[in-house]
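Notebook, p. 212. Picked up where the previous page left off. The plan for this session was modest: take the two constructs that came back from the sequencing core last week, fold each one, and keep the raw output in the notebook itself so nobody has to go hunting through shared drives later. Recording the first one now, exactly as returned: residue sequence, then the structure token string.
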Amino acid sequence: MTTNTKAYGVQNENDNLKPMDIKRREVGEDDVKIDISYCGVCHSDIHTARNEWGGSTYPVVPGHEIIGRVTAVGKNVKDHKEGDLVGVGCMVDSCQECAQCKNDLEQFCEKGATFTYNSEDKHLKGQQTYGGYSRSVVVNKEFILRIPENLDEAGAAPLLCAGITTWSPLTHWKVKKGDKVGVIGLGGLGHMGVKFAHALGAQVVMITTSPSKAEDAKKLGAHEVLISKDDDEMAKHQGSFDFILNTIPVGHEMDPYIALLKIDATMVLVGAVEPLKPFNGGSIIMGRKRIAGSLIGGIKETQEMLDFCGKHNIISDIELIDIKNINEAYERVVKADVKYRFVIDMASLSD
């Protein structure tokens, strides 16, 4: 059995997002149904809608930063009830049996995680998963996240992707009070990296090519701003960082940033899902430096992040839009013309 719900999506890679009806499964024994209030706009939504990474299955209904209220639960659901404020991030299922799933790393499921959109739907044969640009969604109880009630709902939406993407490496590499932490790039990811590193007690340095972003970076919690185009300033900071979070979304020169790391320090990439420009192997050998990557986070870790945000009242800086303005928003995201994340008011879908 299925039910129809209103959504916004694309029928092909050259299409604008338009209204459509999609099918959602009925609530099963282990399921939670959510009436979606807000959905964040991630650059991954654009890449998938436009098939820029390849592999998109149409129609595509994007959206993996979902906030809403529970409207129904299956008989096996004990931790959520009607009316609860909840969220759904980048995943809606996994095998829940492999070593990675048992280690709370569902994003690395050995049988492949089921992502919130553009994955094979295990419950509706022949259909792919559809994301949060819709009025409702039905999700397995293990992938439902509790949202602290003190947080602004719209501002909490990007925590489910941008938030966990930056929180996970900061905590996995044990960033602590007093560490000198660099955050490269001030966008949807970078602004969350600054907020989290500051809240963890680090000395936060925003590293950017744009002097115009200095004031904003300091308002977000950066203690210093380093202009990466200024060779003299880069030289002053050489060999001084305990950790660098690199959120640059495209291929780029690595050597200038590697030079900033202390001996045994790590730079983690979370943005560039594409080839990087070649870098000098000597730059990591001479200093035993590390370059690593990180992909979102598991469900347990995401809940820990949300609880931390509730305790410290951390949300994303957003621009709230109606769904009818989503195509314009996509163009602005591509131009980096948003501070710092668009969030869709999903009530506007039924207007």
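Okay, moving on. Second construct, recorded in the same format:
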Amino acid sequence: MYTNVWYVAARSDELTDKPLYVEMLGTDFVLFRDAEGNAACLSNACPHRGDSLANGSVSKNGEIICPFHGWHFNREGECTKIPSVGDDDPQTAAPGVRVDAYPVIEKQGLIWTFLGDEPEKAKPIIDIPELNDPEYTVIPYDVIFESNFHTAKFSNLDYVHLPIVHGIRFEDNENPYQPPPHTVVKTDYGLTAFIETESTYSKGAWSNIREKGTRVKSVLKYFIAGQTLRGQVEIGAIGSGKFTCFYEFSTPIDRTRTMMRYYFFRNFMTHKWMDKMALKRNLKNIYEDKVIAEAQVPKYGPDGMSAIVGKHEDTIVKVYWEMMHEMRDQGWQIDFKAWNNMIDDGEHCVVPSVSRHENQSQWQYPSIPRIQAK
């Protein structure tokens, strides 16, 4: 798992006027809305006695209130009030009291949180143009994969699994299980890859979308921001203008659980009564992938390419690991061995914030250790 990345912490409609507890990267956070209704994110542990801020409340002026002693914290993590000392300055009563605060951007129905201390180096949050395109209809869906962050995503980084797991074959190939040649290109946001093929034809209500003997184009993009996958298929055949696409936002809950949030789009058969059928088609693939991901070992996930490399299976995954190792080499990958040692010594650790980067002293809880930059 990696810091200095924008992650999706929640959907906008999940965050109301009450605090919302969220676990990401194996640590605890609290989301709340300030007086202007803007989303904020703090480390969840009160620096006084370590109680959960998410179990508290939000004041009329949009500050989080600890449920134990009523200490107030604003969106910057500053302690603004300690009821037991009245109007005295909290910094005088409890010198150094503060909570790690993390940048938040709310857009496209999602609450994005930057978890790290170097936001200037982060890949930017992506745009989702289909949300504002009246030709598209959208279906949101969330599910937790009981699997490591990497294995949760691997199915969608692999064309070869399509005929094996989902029954979507490459019908114009002599070997329908072998994907057509495809190139993977590293980009400034992550990677992109595409194939053109006569894939297995849809059945049921979608059986007339594409004529026999035609090909489709499938484009895959991977974005570091949100650890996001965008898949698009011109399902009505190349040149038809009929597209189905998905966005998959992967947020590590901890080492063995990953929150997977989806937007499913289509610009054909857009009547709302078709949504149930469209969602069922998408979830068939999602839950087939989920079974594969949750059965893979090691449970804490790999940290690089397998020693056994497939000729066609690992084309995209190779580039994926190059990107992950670039983040590791910048010092952004969490060092779990060191972290577990700190936990065994009784420490509570937090994701380092921007404020901590600027001032390392006088923090109640130490930073999560990370692998040293090269």
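Notes on construct two before I forget. The domain at 5-121 is CATH 2.102.10.10 (Rieske Iron-sulfur Protein).
Flagging for discussion at group meeting.
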